[in-house]
């Protein structure tokens, strides 16, 4: 996931502030310092929410990112209602967090940014403070992008995983995990691996819903009843699909070499292996959008906010991946 050197003709990445009382603001400062201009990005948020005494430079246009000295965070100011106290979320700032996400999406879609990278949000705070109607970032971005279905992928150098169902209770998974949803997920995943990673014929592993992939019907019937027929239909159309595979044996190092991405039935089936393999370096990527979006694969970490100990590894990986994806898939835009 090493980023390529920036081109002055390519718009920078828009980094949203996320929850102002979480670790997002301090991670933005750390990333700017550690990356030393290797990836051009600017932060959208209220400068009052940045750690006191840290260096930043206000800009009024994303293109001015390239004029900011190396190691200094460029800030596109977005005024919030209230200041932020690390670790103490303020409901009055909830709408500002939502507006920053929408602003970043608009900048990418208008060509003023090459991609957007989102700092973590506190979904309960957004719901309580601004009636946020979406389960999370992914669903809100689908709305902003005007698309009916998107796919959440988690990626690190050793593994890419996709949960077919995302932010729902485990008890609801069997009803929501349908042939249509799995087929949509496979098609979107394959298309974006080709578009953004240059993998024109991706090898896709499909995890079974049940333990041991149902074990011939002894532990569940979804694999026999519809998963195998669906995968056979898609294989006949040219998809390189493996499975349904037993979920407990498909993530060890030798098994991972046989596929480019693993599509799982539900959230934890996908996220447990990648967070075990690379807890700090995982990146959340939204596939199926008309723009590029990445995010660090961690939460707001309110318990350590403001202490200066938050690890910027995942944010740096997310910025690197966003830039690499933009470099491969987007044309240069003249300055």
Automatic annotation (TrEMBL):
NCBIfam families xref list: pdxA (TIGR00557), PRK05312.1 (NF003699)
Keywords annotated in UniProt: Cobalt, Cytoplasm, Magnesium, Metal-binding, NAD, NADP, Oxidoreductase, Pyridoxine biosynthesis, Zinc
Keyword match NAD: yes
Quaternary data: Homodimer.
Organism: Pacificibacter marinus
Binding site for a divalent metal cation: 167, 212, 267
Known catalytic reactions: 4-(phosphooxy)-L-threonine + NAD(+) = 3-amino-2-oxopropyl phosphate + CO2 + NADH
Name of the gene this protein is made from: pdxA
Names of the cofactor(s): Zn(2+); Mg(2+); Co(2+)
Domain of life: Bacteria
HAMAP family: PdxA
Entry similarity comment: Belongs to the PdxA family.
Main enzyme class: oxidoreductase
GO terms for MF: 4-hydroxythreonine-4-phosphate dehydrogenase activity; cobalt ion binding; magnesium ion binding; NAD binding; zinc ion binding
EC numbers, comma separated: 1.1.1.262
Cofactor binding note: Binds 1 divalent metal cation per subunit. Can use ions such as Zn(2+), Mg(2+) or Co(2+).
Miscellaneous comment in the UniProt entry for this protein: The active site is located at the dimer interface.
Residues where substrate binds: 137-138, 275, 284, 293
Listed name of the protein: 4-hydroxythreonine-4-phosphate dehydrogenase
Pfam families, per database record: PdxA (PF04166)
InterPro entries: PdxA, PdxA_fam
A GO CC annotation given for this chain: cytoplasm
GO BP terms in the entry: pyridoxal phosphate biosynthetic process; pyridoxine biosynthetic process
Entry function: Catalyzes the NAD(P)-dependent oxidation of 4-(phosphooxy)-L-threonine (HTP) into 2-amino-3-oxo-4-(phosphooxy)butyric acid which spontaneously decarboxylates to form 3-amino-2-oxopropyl phosphate (AHAP).
Subcellular location, record wording: Cytoplasm
Main location: cytoplasm
Record pathway: Cofactor biosynthesis; pyridoxine 5'-phosphate biosynthesis; pyridoxine 5'-phosphate from D-erythrose 4-phosphate: step 4/5
């Amino acid at each position: 996931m090493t980023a390529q050197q920036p081109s002055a003709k390519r718009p920078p990445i828009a980094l949203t502030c996320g929850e102002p009382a979480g670790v997002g603001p301090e991670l933005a400062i750390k990333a700017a310092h550690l990356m030393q201009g290797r990836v051009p990005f600017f932060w959208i948020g209220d400068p009052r929410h940045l750690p006191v005494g840290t260096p930043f430079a206000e800009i009024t246009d994303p293109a001015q990112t390239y004029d900011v000295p190396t190691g200094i965070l460029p800030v596109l100011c977005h005024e919030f209602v209230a200041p932020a106290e690390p670790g103490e979320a303020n409901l009055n700032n909830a709408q500002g967090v939502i507006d920053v996400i929408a602003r970043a999406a608009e900048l990418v879609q208008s060509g003023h940014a090459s991609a957007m990278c989102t700092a973590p949000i506190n979904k309960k705070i957004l719901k309580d403070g601004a009636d946020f109607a979406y389960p999370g970032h992914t669903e809100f971005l689908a709305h902003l992008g005007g698309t009916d279905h998107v796919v959440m992928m988690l990626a690190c150098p050793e593994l890419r995983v996709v949960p077919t169902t995302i932010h729902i209770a485990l008890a609801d998974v069997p009803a929501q995990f349908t042939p249509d949803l799995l087929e949509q997920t496979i098609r979107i995943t394959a298309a974006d691996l080709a578009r953004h990673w240059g993998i024109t014929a991706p090898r896709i592993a499909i995890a079974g819903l049940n333990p041991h992939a149902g074990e011939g019907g002894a532990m569940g019937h979804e694999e026999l009843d519809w998963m195998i027929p669906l995968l056979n239909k898609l294989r006949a159309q040219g998809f390189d699909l493996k499975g349904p595979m037993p979920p407990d044996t498909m993530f060890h190092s030798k098994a991972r070499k046989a596929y480019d991405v693993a599509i799982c039935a539900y959230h934890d089936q996908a996220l447990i292996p990648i967070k075990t393999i690379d807890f700090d370096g995982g990146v959340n990527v939204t596939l199926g959008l008309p723009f590029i979006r990445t995010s660090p694969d961690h939460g707001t970490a309110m318990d350590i906010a403001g202490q200066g100990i938050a690890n910027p590894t995942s944010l740096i990986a997310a910025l690197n991946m966003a830039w690499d994806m933009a470099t491969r898939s987007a044309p240069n835009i003249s300055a």
